[in-house]
Write a structure and sequence with these properties.
two-stranded antiparallel sheet, 419 residues, 56% helix, mainly alpha, single chain
């Protein structure tokens, strides 16, 4: 509609004699200004009836209420889906905005609420057009339930394998010392195989396994029979055997391979030798049991406290799962277990010595775990092997035991002697 449609006299020559006026029905409501009329919904276009049609002037005048009233009035073009100018009011919505006199008869909606029946973009009380759908989407979107922390491994398999290994170790430890030495030899050889295999697969480092396995087994036995002196002698001979064995291959990468071989000999069998040296004492089984219990309790305390209360990362670049709270849990659990074990298992031991021993075990076990995590991160792997379900490989269980063995051996010798 335009201004000419409100009370203007009809023009002649539009389907009737010039002196005859059309009987037009006045639009309902008060007279609107140009701005209000522009916001009304456009009426559908009705084609003009031919001059002298079969209907009377009254019918034709009533039909003209839904289309152009005059011949010189242009039909309104359909609205574009995307108006060229954002300021065009007709591009916002195809629904009619409430008129000023109609707004007084309706109760004002709540601030920011969308009127009933209005599209998503129509929001009252001056709320920007783009904010209302976002607010409604935030309120209408279903809230995701808070996910509970889950362990990264199969706990049932891990517990089952751990209990089985513990039973074998304890049985061999208290039945016959030589059997336990055999268990340590098997663990050392398998650990060397896992380490050298991962080095070859991920870094193309070919550390010779044969001299390492033979020297590692001899090193463990020498530590039990001859003590620290025997272990050092076999360690030197193993390093020499690695150097000679590698000479049978091309010289490319020789220094890299023998360096990795000497490192593997020190890291796995030499550190494991301190376990058999503890076993050689009169109360050797009790010392080894104390060493195993403190290390396991330290790992368990770190896991339990870190899983429940861990917030601050301990070494995020090395092991993102470890937290400072977990370290405090390891220290507390290990000190409590150390006081009990040294008081009741070690001959001549005292509870305060157990506190010191537990603190040292917690620190060394954490550093050992971080050290192997550093190796695995450098190799780009998660586990050293898949031999133990829920645990990974043998080396994934020896990571905290190997560096802790010399610490426990040294402190027990300092506290109660070599036995």
């Amino acid at each position: 509609m335009n201004d000419a449609s409100r009370g203007a006299p009809p023009r002649g020559g539009h389907g009737g004699p010039p002196d005859q006026g059309y009987a037009l029905a006045a639009p309902a409501g008060p007279v609107l200004d140009e701005h209000a009329a522009r916001q009304t919904r456009p009426m559908p276009i009705v084609p003009d009836a031919p001059a002298g049609g079969g209907r009377d002037d009254h019918d034709r005048g009533a039909a003209r209420l839904s289309g152009p009233l005059f011949r010189d009035e242009r039909p309104q073009e359909p609205m574009p889906s995307e108006p060229p100018e954002p300021a065009e009011p007709q591009g916002r919505s195809r629904h009619r905005q409430p008129l000023p006199h109609e707004a007084r008869h309706h109760e004002a909606p709540h601030h920011g609420a969308r009127p009933q029946g209005a599209p998503n973009g129509a929001v009252s009380h001056g709320v920007p057009q783009g904010e209302a759908p976002q607010r409604e989407a935030r309120h209408d979107a279903p809230r995701q339930p808070r996910q509970k922390k889950q362990a990264g491994r199969d706990l049932r398999a891990a517990i089952g394998v751990g209990v089985g290994l513990g039973a074998v170790i304890v049985a061999s430890l208290f039945v016959q010392k030589a059997v336990f030495v055999g268990v340590v030899v098997v663990a050392v050889v398998v650990g060397l195989w896992e380490l050298t295999s991962r080095l070859r697969e991920r870094k193309e480092v070919r550390a010779p396994l044969v001299p390492l396995a033979a020297g590692g087994a001899a090193m463990v036995v020498a530590g039990y029979v001859r003590g620290a002196e025997g272990a050092w002698v076999v360690m030197a001979l193993t390093a020499l055997a690695v150097l000679v064995w590698r000479m049978a291959q091309p010289p490319e990468g020789y220094l890299r391979d023998v360096t990795a071989g000497v490192f593997a000999a020190f890291y796995v069998p030499f550190l494991a030798t301190f376990v058999t040296m503890m076993l050689a004492a009169d109360d050797g089984p009790q010392r080894v049991l104390t060493f195993l219990v403190l290390t396991i309790v330290s790992d368990t305390g770190a896991y339990a406290v870190g899983w429940r209360f861990g917030r601050h990362k301990l070494a995020p670049r090395i092991s993102p799962g470890k937290t400072r709270e977990g370290l405090f849990g390891a220290v507390g659990f290990a000190m409590a277990a150390g006081a009990l074990c040294v008081e009741f298992l070690i001959d001549g031991g005292s509870w305060w010595q157990g506190l010191v021993l537990g603190l040292a075990v917690a620190v060394s076990a954490t550093l050992g775990d971080l050290g192997e995590s550093m190796i695995k991160r450098d190799l780009g792997i998660k586990d050293m092997g898949t031999l133990l379900p829920g645990h990974g490989g043998i080396m994934d269980r020896l990571d905290s035991l190997l560096p802790t063995a010399p610490v426990v051996w040294l402190l027990l010798v300092a506290f109660v002697g070599g036995g």
